[in-house]
């Protein structure tokens, strides 16, 4: 359905702004071209496939974390499909072999278990744990203590089986080039002895390339320097968040205002169901035209429409009193949101819309009772 900007979108609704997405893609393409590397979209962070026609004009393919993401990559994106999973499942592996250009194993056990089922169309890699990380939040630290993600150098053989053509690491989360430099230094020190037999390296995701303060020129320099030492290796990066970063918002509506020691607005959205990183990271979303509590005249706690007591988006202040029916615009709600939503408590999933560069809106998807029921039995 097409709407012009005067019409009201369904509520709640994720609105991806195509122009902002394309700006991110252009920047990633610049890195790709100037550093002579390949960039994949990590579906874990952003899988809004109605935008893939646009994304595939700029990026080289997708990285998938298992069968469903791999199929989505193949069906909706095309180009290269790189599949890594902490552990592959026997009943899914045949299909993964059929559709994946790269298959990355998390351990040598998995490699041994599945290597004979791969074929010459699959380029095989191992995910390493470089054992260096500057990620503060344990939930998002792939190299934290006892991490199951990737193989440490002490679990590597002295020489690699011939069919292994690449090494992969993923060690960052929302980080700048300084963090990548630290990881690269350790990675190179421990693993460069294997590079001569390889064809590619994959530096994973967590690179916040499209954030304002990311040092893109430095990234290009670091990548070029690395490549100049190992010109035979193709370098991949696979950001998710950096693709969807600040490319749109979640629009919600105030359903009621209650009072219990403070003013509390109940919205038709939910931190738990629609923006789970609010509770998991945790972090506080930016809200358009709102400020920290008491900075503006009217302060409210914004709560979700579930019965979970902690389903709280945060406390904010506004210039005007909130009224039932008012719209609340939660910024930067495109990455790691619609890929993680749930219908917990029977809350409907938000609709999904695209804002076109000319200001018009296209509603891509609405959800209803059936989406809730489909997940239960
Ligand atoms: C999560 C993940 C990514 C993407 O990370 P972002 O932080 O969204 O850039 C890439 N590769 C792997 C293996 C991941 O687990």
Descriptive notes:
This protein has 377 residues and is an alpha/beta fold. The protein is built from 11 helices and 17 strands. The strands form 2 sheets. Strands 1, 2, 11, 12, 13, 14, 15, 16 and 17 form a 9-stranded mixed sheet that branches. A hairpin with a 5-residue loop joins strand 16 and strand 17. The longest helix is centred in the N-terminal third of the chain and has 18 residues. Pyridoxal-5'-phosphate binds next to helix 8.
Question: Which labels suit this protein?
Answer:
single chain, 377 residues, alpha/beta, TIM Barrel, Lyase, Ornithine Decarboxylase, Chain A, domain 1, 2 domains, 9-stranded mixed β-sheet, 26% helix, elongated, binds pyridoxal-5'-phosphate
Helix content: 25-40%
As a whole number of angstroms, the C-alpha radius of gyration is 22 Å
Instruction: Give the CA-based shape.
Output: elongated
Structural class of the helices, strands and pairings?
A: alpha/beta
The fourth-level CATH homologous superfamily of the largest domain is Alanine racemase
Main sheet properties: 9 strands, mixed
Amino- and carboxy-terminal Cα gap? 31 Å
CATH class of the largest domain: Alpha Beta
Q: How are the SSEs placed, and which strands pair?
A:
Blueprint: E1 2-3, E2 13-17, H1 18-35, E3 38-42, H2 52-55, E4 61-64, H3 67-77, E5 80-84, H4 90-99, E6 102-105, H5 108-114, E7 123-127, E8 164-168, H6 177-191, E9 200-202, H7 216-229, E10 234-237, H8 241-244, E11 248-259, E12 263-267, H9 271-274, H10 277-280, E13 298-303, E14 312-318, E15 327-331, E16 351-355, E17 361-365, H11 369-374
Parallel strand pairs: 2-16, 3-4, 3-10, 4-5, 5-6, 6-7, 7-8, 8-9, 9-10, 12-13
Antiparallel strand pairs: 1-17, 2-11, 11-12, 11-15, 13-14, 16-17
């Amino acid at each position: 359905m097409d709407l012009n900007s005067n019409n009201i979108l369904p509520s709640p609704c994720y609105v991806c702004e195509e122009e902002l997405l394309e700006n991110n893609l252009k920047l990633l393409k610049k890195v790709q071209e100037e550093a002579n590397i390949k960039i994949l979209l990590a579906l874990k962070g952003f899988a809004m496939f109605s935008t893939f026609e646009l994304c595939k004009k700029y990026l080289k393919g997708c990285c998938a974390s298992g069968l469903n993401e791999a199929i989505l990559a193949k069906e909706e994106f095309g180009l290269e499909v790189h599949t890594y999973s902490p552990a592959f499942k026997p009943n899914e592996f045949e299909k993964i072999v059929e559709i994946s250009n790269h298959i990355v194993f998390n351990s040598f056990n998995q490699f041994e278990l599945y290597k004979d089922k791969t074929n010459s169309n699959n380029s095989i890699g191992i995910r390493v744990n470089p054992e260096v990380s500057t990620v503060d939040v344990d939930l998002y630290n792939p190299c934290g203590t006892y991490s199951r993600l990737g193989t440490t150098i002490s679990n590597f053989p002295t020489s690699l089986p011939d069919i292994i053509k690449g090494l992969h690491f993923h060690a960052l989360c929302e980080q700048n080039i300084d963090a990548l430099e630290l990881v690269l230094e350790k990675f190179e020190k421990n693993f460069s002895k294997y590079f001569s037999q390889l064809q590619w390296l994959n530096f994973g995701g967590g690179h916040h390339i499209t954030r304002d303060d990311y040092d893109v020129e430095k990234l290009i320099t670091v990548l070029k320097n690395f490549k100049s030492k190992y010109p035979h290796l193709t370098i991949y990066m696979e950001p998710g968040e950096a693709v969807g970063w600040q490319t749109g918002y979640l629009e919600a509506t105030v359903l009621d205002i209650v009072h219990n020691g403070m003013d509390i607005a109940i919205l038709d959205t939910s931190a738990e169901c629609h923006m789970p990183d609010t509770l998991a990271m945790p972090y506080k979303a930016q809200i358009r035209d709102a400020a920290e509590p008491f900075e503006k005249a009217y302060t409210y706690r914004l709560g979700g429409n579930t019965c979970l007591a902690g389903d709280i988006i945060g406390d904010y202040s506004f210039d005007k009193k909130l009224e039932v029916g008012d719209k609340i615009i939660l910024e930067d709600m495109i990455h790691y949101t619609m890929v993680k939503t749930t219908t917990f408590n029977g809350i409907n999933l938000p609709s999904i819309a695209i804002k076109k560069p000319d200001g018009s809106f296209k509603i891509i998807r609405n959800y209803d009772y059936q989406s809730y029921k489909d997940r239960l039995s």
